[in-house]
Design brief:
Layout lengths: L7 H39 L4 H38 L2 H7 L4 H42 L6 E10 L2 E9 L4 E11 L2 E14 L4 E13 L2 E12 L11 H4 L5 H13 L5 H29 L6 H28 L5 H22 L3
Antiparallel strand pairs: 1-2, 2-3, 3-4, 4-5, 5-6
Helix pairs in contact: 1-2, 1-4, 2-4, 2-7, 2-8, 4-7, 6-7, 7-8, 7-9, 8-9
Length: 363
Amino acid sequence: MKNLKLKLIDYYIIKKFLGTFFFALAMIMAIVIIFDVAEKLDDFMDNNISWYEIIFVYYLNFIPYFANMFSPLFIFISVIFFTSKLTGDSEIVAILTSGVSYRRLMYPYFISALLLATMTFLLSSYVIPEANKKRIEFEYKYIYNKGGFYARNVHKQIEPGIYAYIESYDNSRNIGYKFSIEKFDNKELVPKLVADRVSWDSTKQKWTVKNYYIRDYKGKEEKITSGNSIDTLINLNPSDFEVIERSIETLNASELKDFIAEQKMKGDEKIEEYKVEEYRRLAFPFSTFILTLIGVSLSTQKRRGGTGLNIGIGLLLSFMYILFMQIFTEFAKASTVPSLLGVWLPNIIFLGVGIFLYRIAPK
């Protein structure tokens, strides 16, 4: 345990790691914000948005989202940059020849990685979802200038054994077309309602069905009733037709878990996409440790190309990691691979790369 007590050199490495990371992240965020302002300036001016709203409502909630998105890449670059400099100045050699083992050298790096991984987890699970609510609301109100959405071919289980289908739904008018609702009892269809149109009455908090007919099955008998209009109470709200891919960004960890359980009950076809988001919020912070391991193992080797070559190799590996992450995420969403495996497979592969580089690093 005495060997794990923080020493002056540990504080030095932690300070270098975190300092380089936050400086690099601040620089890239400044560039991203400048380009974003240039792109959206006309929208800001056309809508007469106050500077208070732009800064404190939009960009204050914009920064955590994009900072978290870029963090793994800049953790990797930060480790490679300052460690390569230490190696080039023979500081790493001096540390190792003073009796510090290579494994012990990794200790302050992994303390820094733990701090950053914890920060990333808390941001993605609790802070960013709340920030996304305000950011997305601002974008829809001023940037996209659209209060509505248009859903197509929505099929949902609204209660056990009860399924609803709508071919298209326009929330700007709260009207849906080609609507049907089916009820099953022991896998047998009992009644089925089919309508040309359905509309939401916000005053009555009910759906009004237009030009409908109901087919009621009782054994081998079939009874058909029809009409022009009827009010119906079903466990379905206009918000259920929203583009859920965007809305899951606004759910914190516990809300997302409840949401997945609810959508599973309703038979949502995109359940794997929601699971991917849930698993990603844990796999993403864990990548901090893997990228740190790879970065240190690469950077403690003196190369003829120096820091530039190490950064080049690091960038190549980081882009490969991002590519693998995107590919397997899409596989998971499409149910080509199990969602848990699809999210974690890039981490598993690059953990193997990190262990290999650690073993061949000069000790």
